[in-house]
Q: What sequence folds into this?
């Protein structure tokens, strides 16, 4: 009898005894332990946020694409964002898994639920969502103080950018998620929000989907003042090459040489999104940032490095681009070439 | 090779293939992203494992997936076998004839409508499969006779038409649903759940049993409709049963795992090489063979590019498309 009791006690996890039910950002009810100690992150942005909150040592697993900060690369990986390995997640014995509705698949959430592993889901459509997610994570992960400090610091930087660009003329911006076929960011994305907050206006804000395709003609017709590319070698060829492409060379922005590569942190809804905001604002309104001591706003950054123009590559694949690629692949698989070949 | 369809032979065949299927299944349960030894897997299967993680991995993640692969494999292979008999065409296959695309369209429409309709997705997939089968069959008949190539072309064109509609519906879905749907369209067994299996297993087994009951009639149908009618086969009834049940099997398979191609072509062909074309031996061979081939394909899909995964449809297409071309050349010759 005693043995059975001891066995049962050994099996029950202490954290599970003190769980509380919270509603996550996606509206799911989640059993979150009071002091989660073993976290698995299913998206690079969440990994970045966890490190920014000083929770890196509680992270026991992340995705293949989690490359920032560099320590994140050393954590055990559970696979890619769209199709993480459930068995690896189980083997890491997490007491809380963190995912993001815009990057992970619903099936993953359902499967984790079935396995009895709590998943806290975030949503990120705007820059404010990203800031709110930091506060939410702070509450869920029992680190309110760090989260509040981080959130306030980021809000201060956002306010500073907004103060500087207030009243300036708003340049029209084309954000190139993918150049061939031209794919851009729709209105309900944090990219569009960053462009807006940085004192610009996205030329694709009237389109419905999140990552809409845009014909080159339509883009030319909308005549952007500035064209932005995220720094990601695989997806955006060198600017020199783009400038020479037929069609592309007709852009006024190309003729005036207003093409810029921005930090790929713009596609991560993490604290580094504010780095991207500052960078985009400085591109769109150089005068507003040149007059003050140019270092001032950079110093405000938490990061050691300035929000640089450094070209890092891997991170992009994790975002919705992978999705885009997937639907393109599905297009191809809809009718396998073998069928046509065979029919002839 | 030809195996006489005595009761003893059929029984022996079923026992041997079931044993192979069990071995392949055990191997599939042992292979995965997390390293588990055969001993650990065996302990979980016997219920004597004291490792909660191993238990969760084997019984909650790997087992549903292996079981789903076996059921889907059996469904598609049997659907292919009976369609080939009925249409007297070795190239008939739910995927090539567009039946899978019809099922996929039905399923994805249900997803688009959402709510209670989404729960009825397998039903809509069945309806889509049935409508496509009837449509392609009608197109393939000219002056009361089935034209082999007209039928195939009708199937291929229908498949591409339906794929276009699917792409259109995909653009209407929310970004989140598109991600799931795009994965599923390529053939995805990873969403296997215990609940689905409990619904799927009886339906698949019952359908295959009913089709087996018609296996003698299917043999006679190979001679041609008129000949079969002369020999006392109720042709209309056989046609109805085959169309309904092959559509049901395809609809269920597609709804559970997306459009996995060429299995209905590859497996019956292998089966005929192994036991001959008597449906009393061919049908059980195709059912168990389909299960074996898809479990193997899915294990390959999970391991060749580990830690990532290939869509299982890619693996079956790589193996199946060359067989299709080989059969096409032989038929055309």
A:
């Amino acid at each position: 009898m005693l043995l059975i009791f001891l066995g049962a006690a050994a099996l029950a996890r202490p954290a599970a005894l003190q769980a509380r039910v919270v509603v996550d950002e996606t509206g799911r009810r989640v059993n979150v332990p009071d002091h989660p100690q073993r976290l698995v992150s299913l998206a690079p942005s969440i990994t970045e946020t966890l490190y920014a909150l000083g929770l890196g040592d509680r992270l026991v697993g992340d995705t293949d694409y989690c490359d920032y900060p560099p320590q994140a690369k050393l954590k055990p990986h559970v696979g890619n964002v769209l199709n993480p390995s459930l068995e690896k997640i189980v083997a890491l014995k997490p007491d809380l898994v963190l995912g993001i509705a815009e990057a992970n698949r619903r099936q993953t959430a359902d499967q984790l639920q079935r396995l009895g592993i709590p998943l806290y889901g975030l949503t990120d459509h705007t820059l404010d969502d990203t800031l709110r997610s930091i506060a939410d994570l702070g509450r869920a992960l029992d680190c309110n103080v760090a989260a509040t400090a981080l959130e306030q610091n980021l809000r201060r930087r956002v306010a500073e950018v907004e103060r500087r660009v207030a009243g300036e003329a708003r340049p029209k911006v084309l954000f190139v998620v993918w150049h061939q076929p031209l794919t851009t960011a729709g209105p309900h994305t944090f990219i569009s929000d960053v462009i807006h907050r940085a004192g610009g206006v996205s030329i694709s804000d009237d389109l419905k989907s999140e990552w809409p395709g845009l014909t080159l003609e339509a883009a030319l017709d909308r005549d952007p003042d500035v064209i932005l590319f995220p720094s990601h070698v695989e997806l955006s060829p060198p600017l020199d090459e783009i400038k020479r492409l037929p069609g592309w060379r007709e852009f006024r922005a190309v003729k005036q040489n207003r093409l810029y590569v921005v930090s790929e942190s713009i596609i991560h809804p993490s604290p580094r999104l504010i780095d991207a905001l500052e960078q985009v604002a400085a591109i769109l309104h150089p005068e507003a940032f040149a007059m003050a001591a140019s270092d001032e706003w950079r110093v405000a950054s938490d990061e050691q490095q300035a929000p640089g123009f450094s070209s890092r590559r891997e991170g992009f694949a994790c975002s919705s681009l992978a999705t885009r690629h997937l639907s393109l692949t599905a297009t191809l698989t809809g009718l396998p070439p073998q069928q046509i070949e065979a029919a002839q | 090779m030809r195996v006489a369809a005595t009761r003893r032979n059929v029984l022996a065949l079923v026992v041997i293939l079931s044993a192979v299927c069990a071995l392949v299944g055990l191997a599939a349960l042992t292979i995965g992203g997390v390293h588990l030894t055969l001993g650990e897997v065996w302990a979980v299967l016997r219920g004597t494992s004291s490792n909660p993680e191993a238990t969760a991995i084997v019984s909650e993640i790997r087992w549903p997936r292996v079981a789903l692969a076996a059921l889907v494999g059996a469904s598609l292979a049997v659907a292919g076998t009976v369609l080939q008999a009925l249409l007297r065409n070795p190239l008939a296959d739910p995927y090539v004839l567009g039946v899978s695309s019809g099922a996929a369209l039905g399923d994805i429409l249900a997803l688009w409508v959402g709510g209670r309709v989404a729960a009825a997705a397998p039903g809509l997939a069945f309806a889509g499969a049935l409508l496509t089968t009837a449509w392609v069959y009608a197109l393939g008949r000219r002056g009361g006779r089935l034209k082999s190539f007209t039928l195939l072309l009708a199937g291929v064109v229908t498949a591409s038409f339906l794929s276009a509609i699917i792409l259109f519906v995909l653009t209407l879905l929310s970004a989140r649903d598109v991600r799931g749907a795009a994965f599923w369209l390529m053939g995805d067994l990873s969403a296997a759940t215990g609940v689905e299996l409990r619904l799927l297993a009886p339906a698949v087994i019952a359908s295959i049993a009913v089709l087996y009951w018609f296996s003698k009639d299917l043999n006679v149908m190979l001679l041609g409709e008129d000949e079969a009618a002369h020999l006392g086969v109720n042709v209309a009834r056989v046609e109805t049963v085959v169309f309904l049940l092959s559509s049901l099997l395809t609809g269920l398979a597609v709804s559970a795992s997306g459009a996995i191609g060429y299995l209905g072509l590859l497996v019956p062909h292998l089966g005929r090489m192994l036991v001959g074309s008597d449906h009393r031996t061919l049908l059980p061979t195709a059912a168990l063979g389909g299960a074996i081939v898809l479990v193997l394909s899915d294990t390959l899909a999970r391991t060749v590019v580990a830690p990532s995964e290939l869509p299982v449809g890619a693996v079956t297409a790589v193996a199946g498309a060359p067989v299709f071309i080989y059969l096409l050349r032989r038929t055309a010759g």
About this structure: Residues 1-17, 293-344 of chain A have pLDDT under 50 and may be disordered.
